[in-house]
Amino acid sequence: MEREAGEPGYWDDHQTAQQKMQQLGRLKDTVTLWRDLQSRSQNLAELNEMALAENDLSLQESLESESDELTKALTREEVNLTLSGPYDDGPAILSIHAGAGGTDAQDWAEMLMQMYCNWAALGKRPLEVMDLSYGDEAGLRSATLEVGGPHSFGYLSAEQGVHRLVRLSPYDPNNLRQTSFAQVEILPIAEDDLEIEVRPEDIKLDTFHSSGPGGQNVQKVASAVRLTHIPTGIVVTCQNERSQHQNREFAIRILKAKLLARQSEERAKEVAVMRGDRVAPEWGNQIRSYVLHPYKSVKDHRTNLQSTNPEAVLNGAIDPFIEAYLMSRVGQ
Fold this sequence. Notes:
The protein is of the alpha+beta class. The chain has helices at 2-5, 14-54, 57-80, 102-122, 152-156, 244-275, 310-314, 319-328, and strands at 92-98, 127-134, 140-147, 161-168, 177-188, 203-208, 224-229, 234-238, 286-291, 297-300, 306-307.
């Protein structure tokens, strides 16, 4: 691929050349990573033989620490090897929708959004807020984010489903225990826009006034956008930006992601039918419970992995839950 990139006329088709260069960059990163792991393991083996031969206890302790780091790196790459889907390596659109439960559920949706923002920051993943719909008193009715970085869709696909919160309600005058629900939806983004075509004549565009926290109208200009894809009935709204043009661009990206996800689901169902598999209705499954009262716990109902530190989890430390779920799917 490097030789091809040096040939005359390579950049005549700029879009194709750019895609190939991105693919080349990913391949070089992969080769470099595994060669580095190979070199580190060989050096450790040689030093370990030397430490044993000379009975060097201090060197053995140092090697144990380095071995632990290497094991963690290998475990992380083992998880990455489970991500073999066509979009697993790319960015993702993450949407959060408050469930039934009024203000408590809307506050829970905002807490989840902050959890994923923290997770992205911990992993140094670029994040863009595409749409926010505020609750009447507090919290969010819904939020849509675009998360970049390597394997973002693959990792975040483990988060799709219903998330349940149990706590003492800060919005109940009697401070009673409240159970709230929020739905997390993860959509892939195709690198090649040609894969999903959205024709202008298939879209119905409506504009309206965007609203801010507490239901206040933050715009006198109708900058918020609602797109209806007529062939499928899919509706997308976007009101985060002050510019109607920017909101329309975000809405188109979200619509394309929804159409891509719909296409992928239909292919998966066709394959499942051909294989004779039972097609499980994924939408609406409760995947994880976060309990802040009467005890503290976060439990993933798919893997039974549990943490007694919900504060850390809500601050973005969700990788153990993601990795446990991805590893549990190997061989399925």
